[in-house]
Amino acid sequence: MFSRILRSTIQNNIIHRNLCNVKLVNGTIIQKLQDEKQRNLISHWTSQVRWLNSTSTSSTVQTLTSKINSNTTLYSPPNASSILNLQNLNIGVNVPSRSVIKFTRSRGKRQTVKTVLRRFYRLNWGIWIRTKAGRHRRFWTKSPARKRRCRQHVFCNSTQSWLLDKMVSPYWRKPKYWVDDPYTPYHTREEFWITRKSPKEY
After folding, report:
1. Mean pLDDT for the chain?
2. How many Cβ atoms are within 10 Å of 45's Cβ, its own excluded?
3. Single pTM value for the model
4. Which of 55, 80, 84, 179 is the most buried (most CB within 10 A)?
């Protein structure tokens, strides 16, 4: 039974190549360890091998030694590419989500997601706008044309705007009239027939 446990333990890549070097020579274990847990594990193996050596014949110990030496596969630490592949796999598993509170405990009303108000802005005709990602990153390396584009805003599509509308309360979906609002020319879109408010001039 001990031989089966020892062989399965080594085959399951528990022994680290950088931490220990395990060899069976005449029923004894030569160990070079740095980890305390690994040292305790090998000392336990040493006592078991000694017990096996005292209770069994020498042919059994030699057979066990040959099997372990032939089936030993030491674990090597993963390289950088495998770590990156594992990180890419974990991205698909841990999908970020943001819950919406429809009814608060205090007032029983929908609660606004504060990050939506901090990252996006809603125009009065229903579209949400945002700034470009990375507009301040490595700004000194960008060309003048790219710096000008970094000061511009980006429209969210209809699906994103509908999602953002559901993440805020009705208060933030109503038109706001601020003094010296720089977005005043963009709050109306009369050239598009769906967003037109006033009658078309012929």
Report:
1. 74
2. 19
3. 0.51
4. 84
